[in-house]
Amino acid sequence: MSYDPSAFPPFAVTVDLVVLTVRRHALCALAVRRGEAPYKGRWALPGGFVRADEDLTQAAARELAEETGLHAHAPSVPAQDNGAHLEQLATYGDPGRDPRMRVVSVAHLALAPDLPAPRAGGDASNARWAPVEELLRHEGYGRDGETAAPLAFDHAQILADGVERARSKIEYSSLATAFCPTEFTVGELRRVYEAVWGVALDPRNFHRKVTGTPGFLVPTGGTTTRQGGRPAQLFRAGGATLLNPPMLRPEV
Amino acid sequence: MSYDPSAFPPFAVTVDLVVLTVRRHALCALAVRRGEAPYKGRWALPGGFVRADEDLTQAAARELAEETGLHAHAPSVPAQDNGAHLEQLATYGDPGRDPRMRVVSVAHLALAPDLPAPRAGGDASNARWAPVEELLRHEGYGRDGETAAPLAFDHAQILADGVERARSKIEYSSLATAFCPTEFTVGELRRVYEAVWGVALDPRNFHRKVTGTPGFLVPTGGTTTRQGGRPAQLFRAGGATLLNPPMLRPEV
DNA sequence: GATCATAGTCGTCTCACTGACGATAAACAC
DNA sequence: GTGTTTATCGTCAGTGAGACGACTATGATC
């Protein structure tokens, strides 16, 4: 209970980012290649130290901008324009999670629409969107040599926690729209759910559900045929953030 | 991105605890009186520094034991014996949240059955169970002079976040049983929901719902009349942790 | 231009579950 | 006994989800 300033051990505090997007029907996360020991050459989550005068959320938003150019939204605001949803995920502080010193990492979760190629400090070869399934396939039997090695530090755990958060949160919130561009169709939104949950959903029931939930979607009046087939109405995210009743994730 | 050990600012890392219980039909939190500046004499959440060789969860469990004598459970295990549910809540790291230095606090949420009086380092007058409604009533117009002042630091925000977590989590998990003793009746469990949500629930529908959810409750065979009225069956928590379909919180 | 493939949209039917609420049961206080 | 309290069982109507049929509007192919 004592706050004697000489009595507490010093920690380094970092933010690590789980940046998720949906590309080619797969849930993908941003990974950067480590340029230094430890885990040199291995893939890791983007992140960095929290500065002395910086809030944790500010630090996460700064790192996100540095890695992706994305502008972060406050958690309550639905993703519009070119912004990403950003929220705190959890904090990881095992002694020994970093072999060099005692580091406590405050992980954040960011959800972004499909983006152009990532840039890590301008060096594209050191950053990539990788399917989370691939990043979490630890054993390294995949044919892609680059991702055969598990993520550095405890980042596999952090990524898994972030994915699980995203999977559960799109059930009861309108967060899935954060994966979509400003204007999107019901089918595009459905493909987001299908990619994040890894299941197939009935297009007719999905359409009835999302268009029937007040505040979830607002029609823009336009239509598009970019998915082929019959033209689909365009929507943008409505003001509702909590869905009641929630979307039901098929299970069992 | 650089990990130059001389390039990061040092932080103090603490754990703060939101310890909730249900007493006399009210959701209560453990509060301790601060013995030192800043906020000397004000009520605060229990907490303390994370030690150099300690995991965050270990630190939270240690603080919990020091303040209450409670033995913490792993998050996956339902509360049995004399243990409490413990899970990480969120991390608070505003510069300036502690006027003396840069402190990052990893808040944890603990749920406990109704306990004997708290003990803070053996001094009972410096620890108490207070209704959360009272602790969060910042303005200080209450007639109880002791709680007229808001909680120290950003602890009102932390407490509010913890209460909100508990309120939402008993919807879709069996966590409400963590507020009950090992053996309890359906009526006692219902009073937990009523206290946490601050609503009245229909006893008949509640009974149908909880006894009809597989894995939620297992009858022990015994009965009790400790609540008065007709004897009620005793149950203990079943193995299920996720309730599907969830309990529905009345709203609107 | 007819046909086909693809996606979107509207409807219908059934079943499960909930909320409202009546009725009965088993204890205690008087 | 009578009244009070709490527990427990039943009924009924309304809501919403899953399964799935039917129709529509576009581009691609022959």
From TrEMBL, chains A, B:
Keyword entries, A-Z: Hydrolase
Record has Hydrolase as a keyword: yes
UniProt signal peptide: none
Protein name (record): NUDIX hydrolase
Matches recorded under PANTHER family: ADP-RIBOSE PYROPHOSPHATASE, SLR1690 PROTEIN
Cross-referenced InterPro entries: Nudix_hydrolase, NUDIX_hydrolase-like_dom_sf, NUDIX_hydrolase_CS, NUDIX_hydrolase_dom, WH-like_DNA-bd_sf, WH_DNA-bd_sf, WHD_NrtR
Gene Ontology molecular-function annotations: hydrolase activity
Similarity field: Belongs to the Nudix hydrolase family.
